[in-house]
């Protein structure tokens, strides 16, 4: 059970924390004379109140305040990370209300004004780096997500990772039940799904009012998914992931059998009433929108959609590349990679080598490259991914210093069944800060035919080792950085690094067969096509069908996979462009360092320079590499 009343918000919590901190000096009364204790109490109270409410006296205090304000208002993040093992927010869900959006926008504006007041003050290089990072983060969010003009341009309810399904996933995966209070909190949290769904309804209606029309296919996908979950709640509530997870985590060490049965009955009642009815309310609103939806369109159709798309590209790539530049970059790499594929197929004397798509599709259906379509094979796939990760991890000491090698292993799990239909082929979820929940590579096993053996290595390297698991785990461990620097996400850096590690693995010979190397090229081709398709949809006004046709013709993907990917680009505009753009920047910086340093270049040191500063805008990363080159080039 949470120690914080349900109605409390950040202001009340801040006051409580202030009272707690201000009371600490009273202890001095028992240790030193009364008058000195009073003086210290007044000075201490003044400092704490200034930190909490007014212009902070130092940048580090500003960073800490911004981070903790951000964190304390997002209980789902707190539950995932569990800093210091705290569980004070275990009854809470994230706030999706319109008023919370306005509150956050005001908070970001206030903190940005405070940040700018330090602009002309003397800073160390480390302080300047943090100043630039948080400044970029706040400014880009103010220009896009929290601006009055574009606050509601995103499709909050969507088929990929919309809160209507992520709330369920979050509770199932991250709500730990170690004691009776945790079980009680779980039930309260599930009951609060009803309030969260009402907030989502308000969000959708506000978008409707602002003429932010959700593409028709997005609405249909979400409705189908919600309806399936709703039917399970009505007909088989005991099979709901929310119920299964709860029962699996209850045991006799937590409470008696009698108490367990009572808790299960309470949860069952809530699922069949509050949660079921919330699904019905949301479905009714979405069906209204679907009846009025006419097209499957890109951002260009929204008010000032072109301007918004440019901001999305800037936000995700952290560059000033124009949509046309990104479109042409994608076309260039598509042609280059296809030619390399044909060259390999010709060398291996593959029939019809010039038709790379047909040749590789034939390879995909080779009996040696596919799994049997059964549950045993699904377990085998998870085991094979784990083995690939272990194998490459054992060799990483050759390319990474100890400082850049995580101390925790990456686990591999199947994407939950209720999310499979609308989830990508794989994704990585970070470890909790307390280390009790490991970093996890989630694999989509909805259709075993989509899992091709020669493609598995590259995916494992990208999502796990030395990709996301390395970068994110190392960032979380950087105690010398302000805490927000360990957590802040920049898509181009994160995904650019993961794509860079795909190329690193290929360069260093981790593909033991030519089909596995083809699998690497296939992944590179896929990311290059993304540049073309994303900008095609949102800038060049391609239809959904045009985008699907281009990707089918220019990759080796099956149409079912392509449809899922293309539909992702509609709801996460610009995000898919960050992969290849980020990778190309990191590669260009590596080339720059090699050229400048010659024999002094050390790959481990380059990786240190990239990884030991946390996630960064690419312009800040470039400054860091320039400084690394300058320092390394100096004579000893």
UniProtKB/TrEMBL annotation:
Coiled coil residues, start to end: none
Keywords associated with the record = Membrane, Transmembrane, Transmembrane helix
Ranges annotated as spanning the membrane: 12-32, 38-64
Query: InterPro entries attached here?
Result: DUF885 (IPR010281)
This protein's record includes keyword ATP-binding: no
| Superkingdom assignment | Eukaryota
Q: Quote the protein name from its UniProt record.
A: DUF885 domain-containing protein
What are the leading ranks of the lineage? Eukaryota, Metazoa, Spiralia, Gnathifera, Rotifera
């Amino acid at each position: 059970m949470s120690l914080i009343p349900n109605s409390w918000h950040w202001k009340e919590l801040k006051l409580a924390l202030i009272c707690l901190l201000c009371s600490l000096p009273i202890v001095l009364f028992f240790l030193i004379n009364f008058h000195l204790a009073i003086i210290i109490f007044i000075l201490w109270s003044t400092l704490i109140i200034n930190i909490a409410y007014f212009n902070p006296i130092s940048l580090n205090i500003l960073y800490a305040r911004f981070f903790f304000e951000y964190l304390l208002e997002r209980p789902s993040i707190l539950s995932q990370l569990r800093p210091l093992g705290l569980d004070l927010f275990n009854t809470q869900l994230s706030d999706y209300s319109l008023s919370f959006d306005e509150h956050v926008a005001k908070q970001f504006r206030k903190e940005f004004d405070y940040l700018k007041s330090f602009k002309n003050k003397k800073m160390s290089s480390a302080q300047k780096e943090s100043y630039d990072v948080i400044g970029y983060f706040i400014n880009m969010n103010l220009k896009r997500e929290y601006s009055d003009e574009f606050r509601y341009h995103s499709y909050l309810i969507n088929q990929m990772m919309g809160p209507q399904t992520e709330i369920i996933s979050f509770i199932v995966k991250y709500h730990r039940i170690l004691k009776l209070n945790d079980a009680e909190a779980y039930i309260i949290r599930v009951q609060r799904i009803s309030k969260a769904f009402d907030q989502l309804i308000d969000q959708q209606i506000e978008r409707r009012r602002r003429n932010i029309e959700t593409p028709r296919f997005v609405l249909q996908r979400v409705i189908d998914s919600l309806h399936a979950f709703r039917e399970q709640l009505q007909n088989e509530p005991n099979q709901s992931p929310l119920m299964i997870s709860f029962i699996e985590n209850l045991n006799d060490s937590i409470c008696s059998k009698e108490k367990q049965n009572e808790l299960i009955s309470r949860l069952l009642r809530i699922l069949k009433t509050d949660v079921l009815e919330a699904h019905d309310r949301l479905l009714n609103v979405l069906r209204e929108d679907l009846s009025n939806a006419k097209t499957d369109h890109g951002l260009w159709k929204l008010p000032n959609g072109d301007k918004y798309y440019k901001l999305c590209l800037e936000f995700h790539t952290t560059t000033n590349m124009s949509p046309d530049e990104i479109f042409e970059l994608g076309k260039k790499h598509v042609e280059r990679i296809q030619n390399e594929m044909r060259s390999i197929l010709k060398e291996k004397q593959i029939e019809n080598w010039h038709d790379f798509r047909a040749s590789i599709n034939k390879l995909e259906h080779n009996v040696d490259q596919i799994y049997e379509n059964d549950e045993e094979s699904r377990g085998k796939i998870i085991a094979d991914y784990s083995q690939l990760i272990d194998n490459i991890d054992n060799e990483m000491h050759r390319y990474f210093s100890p400082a850049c090698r995580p101390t925790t292993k990456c686990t591999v799990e199947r994407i939950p069944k209720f999310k499979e239909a609308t989830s990508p082929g794989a994704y990585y979820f970070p470890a909790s800060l307390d280390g009790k929940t490991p970093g996890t590579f989630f694999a989509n096993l909805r259709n075993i035919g989509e899992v091709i053996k020669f493609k598995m290595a590259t995916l494992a390297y990208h999502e796990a080792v030395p990709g996301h698991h390395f970068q994110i785990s190392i960032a979380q461990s950087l105690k010398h950085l302000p805490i927000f620097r360990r957590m802040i996400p920049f898509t181009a850096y994160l995904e650019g690094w993961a794509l860079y590690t795909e190329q690193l693995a290929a360069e260093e010979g981790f593909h033991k067969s030519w089909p596995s190397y083809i699998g690497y090229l296939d992944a590179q081709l896929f990311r290059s096509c993304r540049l073309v398709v994303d900008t095609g949809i949102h800038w060049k006004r391609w239809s959904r069908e045009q985008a699907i046709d281009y990707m089918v013709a220019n990759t080796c993907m099956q149409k079912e996979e392509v449809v899922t990917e293309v539909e992702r680009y509609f709801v996460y505009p610009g995000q898919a462009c960050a992969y290849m753009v980020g990778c190309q920047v990191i590669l260009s910086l590596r080339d720059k360092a090699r050229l400048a340093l010659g024999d002094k270049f050390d790959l481990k040191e380059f990786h240190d320079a990239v990884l030991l500063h946390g996630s960064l805008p690419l312009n800040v990363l470039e400054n860091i590499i320039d400084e690394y080159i300058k320092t390394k080039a100096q004579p000893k």
